[in-house]
Amino acid sequence: MFQTQKDYFPKRYVEFRRKISIHTCLTYNPGAEFMKHSIRVQPELDGLGALGDVGWYCIRAILWAMDYELPKSVLAFPGAILNEAGVIISCGSSLQWEDGRSATFHCSFLTYITFDITALGTKGCLRLNDFTLPFDENLGFGTFHESSELDYGKLLEPGRWCPKANEHVVETEYSQDVWMVKEFASLVQKVKYLEVKPEKEWSVMSRKTQLVLDAVKDSIERGYKVIKIVS
């Protein structure tokens, strides 16, 4: 999800006017070997499980869409699934903002691979089905679809009651893994050779993501209570 911080992610293509709701879903079924031996499912190694793995990307995508404004509260959905060691292997949550905007996400190690985002606004919507790892690395973040109120001014095809969503393909020169290494190397070079102060952008985004993630886990552990976010 590295390139969502740069110009390659499709938010710039859509005239949302006012974002109302964001929904993200990231799931995959890694198999029995993973579920027994991966650090992701062992409380003494990485006790956050699916929430800390795939849930992180769901939360980061939501915060990106909300311009990294923290929600006022989170409420985990009842029915989170934990393994025998007490590690989360499937869960979901809602997030609420002061102005009425909302978001939901679902993350799991138990269902077939899904990498979806749906962003809804008063004037448009956006859908993307491979937001974390592109199904085709040659296309960067692959194909996404968007539609807006402006599309209703177009002539409709016979038999179609609304305009077809616009399809966009965002191509990049390198895979997201290469972009990540290049960005990291550039940051180190600036500090080491140009005496530039370290950028705070990445740490701020990571901290906000972790704050929300911890609140979701807290909500689950408290019996699905509303947890206030304190920045």
From TrEMBL:
Gene3D superfamilies in the record: Dihydrodipicolinate Reductase, domain 2
Domain (GFO/IDH/MocA-like oxidoreductase) ranges: 28-126
Name the record gives this protein: Putative oxidoreductase
InterPro entries: GFO_IDH_MocA-like_dom
Family classification: Belongs to the Gfo/Idh/MocA family.
Pfam families tied to this protein: GFO_IDH_MocA_C3 (PF22725)
